[in-house]
Design brief:
globular; membrane; transmembrane; about 425 residues; respiratory chain; transmembrane helix; Cytochrome_b
């Protein structure tokens, strides 16, 4: 699949001239003809959806940057002016703000699909690691963008997160001072965040190109999780176009319905009301919370009593994804044929969702209000803090303990020898 020969034949004089100098038409034609496993399901459409989300964010972000003023005295007012005075400004701003949430929704589904079907296993380790790099860059870009409206949650969120970096030994204070541009979150900080927020999407686009290049070279995974030998390419694959362009297009339309529902009917549902209050350094919000897509990692940060330990745990929760290809010891890729690991994976998904829920709660609030006080649940034990610690323990155990041990001990179900033969054999037995 990854080494298929070019089938493009220039038909006009212009195409022949172009092909001999810049073969971009050949590249597009070869990509459309790329042999693709014929059993890909709708979980594989999120790559195209993410491409759409990235382009949408870049285009709307460039337009917003034309009107935004990165100054502490004018940032909040410039955002309000975009909403009220710029033609279509409210639509552009709501599309950009909700687009971040849609971007992360698609990223999380895309990553969970890769985790379930073992898309990180050899020879696709580089595809997975580049994907994690993209995830980190998107998280950084989203945080920087959240600060730009300069509302209450924006300002105090920046104070909290940048102060966490200061807990890193030796270099922490220097990095914090550089980010602040001084000795507190102020106008130089806003200028730095605006510059980085504008720059990073183009860096993400570059890494996405590398991600697709690695995918083109190693070939796509499939739900069965088997490698397709060259002699079976014709039987087990179909051209990317028109089969998967149509499928991706339909999935994108369904996704756009969800996207449009938020943009047109409830654009502030995923935001925080306090961010419509201008930043006031002298008035701290009662409960500082990040956007929903960062809540699981915020919960992990709060689960550790030591400040530096929390930072290590938060970054470690993402860093562990880089070494995932070497933590999974199973020879079977797809969890479709690994019933024990599938159960642990479903628990992991539930744990990730619960971590997000805990991240939105006050850490010392009771999980079960009004519960009597037996020894097991009195005081702190009946709090989101302890629930978060249990969930955090499972999060790391899933990667560092469960995945290596289950991979060695589990007896997987029989894996088909190819993509096409089981279906054909089944049809012939019916006849």
């Amino acid at each position: 699949m990854s080494d298929h020969e070019s089938t493009y034949v220039p038909k006009t004089a212009f195409e022949r001239w172009m092909d001999s100098r810049l073969p971009i038409i050949r590249f597009g034609a070869d990509y459309m003809a790329l042999p693709t496993p014929k059993n890909l399901n709708y979980w594989w459409t999120f790559g195209a959806i993410l491409t759409f989300c990235l382009i949408t964010q870049i285009v709307t972000g460039v337009v917003l940057a034309m009107h935004y003023v990165p100054h502490v005295d004018h940032a909040f007012g410039s955002v309000e002016r975009i909403m009220r005075d710029v033609n279509g400004g409210d639509l552009i701003r709501y599309t950009h703000a909700n687009g971040a949430s849609m971007f992360f929704l698609a990223i999380y589904i895309h990553m969970m699909r890769g985790l379930y079907y073992g898309s990180y296993k050899a020879p696709r380790e580089m595809i997975w690691m580049l994907g994690v790099v993209i995830f980190l860059l998107v998280m950084a870009t989203a945080f920087l963008g959240y600060v730009l409206p300069w509302g209450q949650m924006s300002f105090h969120g920046a104070v909290v997160i940048t102060n966490l970096i200061g807990s890193i030994p030796v270099i922490g204070e220097s990095i914090t001072t550089w980010l602040w541009g001084g000795f507190s979150v102020d106008n130089p900080t806003l200028n730095r965040f605006f510059s980085l927020h504008y720059l990073l999407p183009f860096v993400i686009f570059g890494v996405v190109v590398m991600h697709l290049w690695a995918l083109h070279h190693a070939g796509q995974n499939n739900p069965v999780g088997i490698l397709i030998p060259k002699e079976r390419t014709a039987k087990d694959t179909v051209p990317f176009h028109p089969y998967y362009t149509v499928k991706d297009g339909f999935a994108l339309l369904v996704f756009l319905i969800l996207f449009a529902t938020f943009v047109f009917f409830n654009p502030n549902a995923l935001g925080h009301a306090d961010n419509y209050i201008p930043a006031n350094p002298l008035q701290t919000p009662a409960h500082i919370v990040p956007e929903w897509y960062l809540l699981p990692f915020y919960a992990i940060l709060r689960a550790i009593p030591d400040k530096f330990g929390g930072v290590i745990a938060m970054f470690g929760s993402i860093g562990v994804l880089f070494i995932l290809p070497w933590l999974d010891t199973s020879k079977v890729r797809s969890m479709r044929y690994r019933p024990t690991m599938k159960l642990f994976f479903l628990i992991f998904v539930a744990v990730a969702l619960l971590l997000g829920w805990c991240g939105a709660q006050l850490p010392d609030a009771p999980v079960i209000p009004g519960l009597p006080s037996p020894v097991l649940f009195d005081g702190e034990l009946n709090s989101y803090l302890w629930l978060t610690r249990l969930l955090t323990a499972y999060y790391f155990a899933f990667f560092l303990i469960i995945m290596p041990i289950v991979g060695l001990k589990e007896t997987p179900l029989p894996v088909p020898a190819s993509i096409a033969e089981p279906v054909l054999d089944h049809d012939e037995s019916k006849a």
